[in-house]
Amino acid sequence: MTQNDSNPPFSLEEGLNMFLKGVKHSMVLGMEIVEITPEGLVVRLPYSEKIIGNPDTGVIHGGAITSLMDQSCGLAVAQALAPDFDITPTIDLRIDYMKPAQPHRDVFAYVTAYRKTKSVVFTRGVAYQDDRADPIANCVGNFMRMGISKTPWSPEARPEGSA
Amino acid sequence: MNLQEIVAKCKETNDFDTLVKGVPYAKTIGMSCIKAGDEVIFMLPANKDNIGNPTLPAIHGGVLGGFIEQSAIMIVLMSMEQPHFPKVVDLSIDYLSAGLFRDSFAECKVLRMGRRIANIGVTVWQAKKDEPIATARAHLLLT
């Protein structure tokens, strides 16, 4: 990557990681971005005692998956709006649970922002452990574009064909 | 004690907080259960670890989701004759305004308790009950 005149302060990857690290609750749960693709991104939620929902089985609480999906969809929105930046609160979030997560194993979220308009960004994604085609949960979430701020993210850092 | 005995004891002592505290995730976000007469209200105290937007600051939308989900599970457990953990099938949350850094409260309505599926409506507020910050709808599988 060449240094350009607008002097972008950080790449897309750095920007998304900064966004995530600023979210206290996601840090408490130990989330991290593991992959950024042209279409979306993958976020890891590590297994831990504190997110157990059923103490008898060790299965994690759906609430932790809700946090994972809300956070991941928010990141996908930021990715879709890059190199611009905006404040984008969640309008609504719907989660369908297909099966419980296997205990003692990490959960991953793969999410994409599949459409953006002037006011709204539409996202969808899955939570899975082994295979995206065999998900634990499916989600759709819509986000409001507040139009509050713009910061110059590195345009060339934005993957080709991203939404 | 098994779950049925715990729920029976909670009903007897009118103290469901013990049941909430037995769930590690509920303990992590810090939620509790308040009984006001026959009314059941769930509380999520202001907690730095639950913050999502650091600038406002505001509660993480996912935490509100988890709070709503656990509240719905609790209300179904309380309504069951043979209490056992119901499975959440789906959850749909509408975020009406930002959850600020203060205590939040949730109240559940059992809209339908079928033989296999329960439909639960949840309202979350902070300052005033008639100014909700989120509403949600959940289906829980009972069998």
Total DSSP E strands of chain A: 8
How many β-strand stretches of chain B?
A: 8
Please state roughly what percent of the residues of chain A sit in beta strands, choosing from under 5%, 5-15%, 15-25%, 25-35%, 35-45% or over 45%. Answer: 25-35%
The Rg value of chain A, from CA coordinates, equals 16 Å
Read across the widest sheet of chain A, the strand sequence of neighbours is: 1-2-6-7-8-5
Tell me the Rg of chain B in angstroms: 15 Å
The class by helix and strand makeup of chain B works out as alpha+beta
Average pLDDT score of chain B = 92
The parts of chain B where pLDDT drops under 50 for at least 5 residues are none
**What's the overall geometry of chain B?**
globular
Order of helices and strands of chain A: HHEEEEHEEEE
Could you please describe the fold and organization of this structure?
The complex is a heterodimer of chains A (163) and B (143). Chain A is an alpha+beta fold and 163 residues long. Chain A contains 3 helices and 8 strands. Chain A has helices at residues 12-21, 24-28, 62-81; strands spanning 32-36, 40-45, 52-54, 59-60, 90-97, 107-116, 120-128, 137-144. Chain A has a 6-stranded antiparallel sheet with strand order 1-2-6-7-8-5, covered by helices on one side. The longest helix of chain A is centred in the middle third of the chain and has 20 residues, at 62-81. Chain A is globular. Chain B is of the alpha+beta class and 143 residues long. Chain B is built from 4 helices and 8 strands; from the N terminus they run H-H-H-E-E-E-E-H-E-E-E-E. In chain B, strands 1-2-6-7-8-5 form a 6-stranded antiparallel sheet. In chain B, strands 3-4 form a two-stranded antiparallel sheet. In chain B, strand 6 (104-113) and strand 7 form a beta hairpin. The longest helix of chain B has 19 residues, at 61-79. The model of chain B has no long low-confidence stretch (mean pLDDT 92). Strand 5 of chain A pairs antiparallel with strand 5 (87-95) of chain B.
